[in-house]
Amino acid sequence: xxxxxxxxxxxxxxxxxxxxxxxxxxxxxxxxxxxxxxxxxxxxxxxxxxxxxxxxxxxxxxxxxxxxxxxxxxxxxxxxxxxxxxxxxxxxxxxxxxxxxxxxxxxxxxxxxxxxxxxxxxxxxxxxxxxxxxxxxxxxxxxxxxxxxxxxxxxxxxxxxxxxxxxxxxxxxxxxxxxxxxxxxxxxxxxxxxxxxxxxxxxxxxxxxxxxxxxxxxxxxxxxxxxxxxxxxxxxxxxxxxxxxxxxxxxxxxxxxxxxxxxxxxxxxxxxxxxxxxxxxxxxxxxxxxxxxxxxxxxxxxxxxxxxxxxxxxxxxxxxxxxxxxxxxxxxxxxxxxxxxxxxxxxxxxxxxxxxxxxxxxxxxxxxxxxxxxxxxxxxxxxxxxxxxxxxxxxxxxxxxxxxxxxxxxxxxxxxxxxxxxxxxxxxxxxxxxxxxxxxxxxxxxxxxxxxxxxxxxxxxxxxxxxxxxxxxxxxxxxxxxxxxxxxxxxxxxxxxxxxxxxxxxxxxxxxxxxxxxxxxxxxxxxxxxxxxxxxxxxxxxxxxxxxxxxxxxxxxxxxxxxxxxxxxxxxxxxx
Length: 576
Hints:
Layout: H1 6-16, E1 26-30, H2 32-35, E2 40-48, E3 67-73, E4 82-83, E5 89-91, E6 102-117, E7 123-126, E8 143-144, E9 148-152, E10 158-162, E11 164-165, E12 178-184, H3 186-192, E13 197-203, E14 214-215, E15 218-222, E16 246-247, E17 252-253, H4 255-271, E18 279-284, E19 297-298, E20 302-303, H5 304-319, E21 329-334, H6 336-347, E22 355-358, E23 381-383, E24 388-390, E25 392-395, E26 401-404, H7 405-416, H8 425-433, H9 455-465, H10 467-473, H11 475-482, E27 486-491, H12 499-510, E28 520-524, H13 539-542, H14 546-549, H15 551-561, E29 566-567, E30 572-574
Helix pairs in contact: 10-11
């Protein structure tokens, strides 16, 4: 946050509350020192009732959400005054005229866009990741106003002043066990028309420096953007953690201590003399659309699948003595990471020796959350002759619904507009799976306002990214390469209904022949997102044990597939 003098703050506040002579009820000026950094972007006007946190952090899918209106900014020049377009689309209330009178905390925020001249001939304007994982509210360089209290009434006018800028991210430092890799991808740089980078946090095995002739298997842990390697701690839990620390997600107190204890326990296992020796990597592949690329090649995202599998992973293996062959690499992860683990195994079957996909994003688009993309005409409504019913988007383990698919998409529409620029969940699915539209942005799978599905886009999704369909379509040639490699886990009360796609995929896998898939599909009873395969412990514990919970199954896989020279005792390969 920029430091500004007290007198300057007073002047800014006085200016913000004076009458507005423009045609819009809301106008915005920028501090002169911030004007030169803006050309194009997305303006968000946010109203909140929450006085404990900034409005920019209060927009959500649940009932406690703040109100946001969004509009594009194009060709901004120093000295311009931005007028909020009163027709700007909003969430959860779509129109500014319908906003109730009352007292609000108000804040204006600008997401900056950069121009990309892509190799496919399209020029697009998108928000670039700045090391934070493509999270607009935390992106370095984005600018905003301090929240102010204001009594909003019909016909009210307000002028706001943007004088805050998000500072750069501090890079994590290397340690004995954890190294940080960042490399330029030639494939992605060519696609995007500028230098593009991918990275990884690498956890090295105990004894790495002392055994220069040892080579190790590679475990690839996919998931949302990691700012550092998670769940590994070389010191005991902090004794001064607050006693009232509460996890709303899991409904328990003391979760920080649980997390730190699990991380320390993992470290103790990692250095123990009888623990298997291998390398773990957590990949950073945020991009202009999301915090993850989904680890596949895409018309809109670029050749991330090839970049990770053929550029980044071999680079890491060469630098840190990975074995460097397909039989020595394993994939695992949950949610987005679960989809990525299965997708990488399906699209690069010879390059990996098994995947453990927990609570994966929809792997069968006949159950794209609660939507059948091939038979339904509308993503937001189940329609009959005399009524239509909203499709649920989020539930708890008792089935209580807290968000609808329509509302989740309308939130993204308000934040990012129709060009798929919100950096949120439905938009990244569209960006990865869709063909490029005539305007250079992802062609919509459905109308973001109405929910009407485009069947031609749905067909493109099926042929290129419906993992169950692709396995079934290509099983004659793909099956022999996937035998024993596909393992899927999901709670039967997944919050996002992801278990429905797993059911459909399991039905296909169970009837496979020549060969039988010979893997595992399991469900957690009443387990929510993201259950990952252990029925004996609660999810708030098992989600912290991804790096150890599949080792027995990996060991069995090595016994079946590893060459004779591989040391089954400590999982190393000696090279002279």
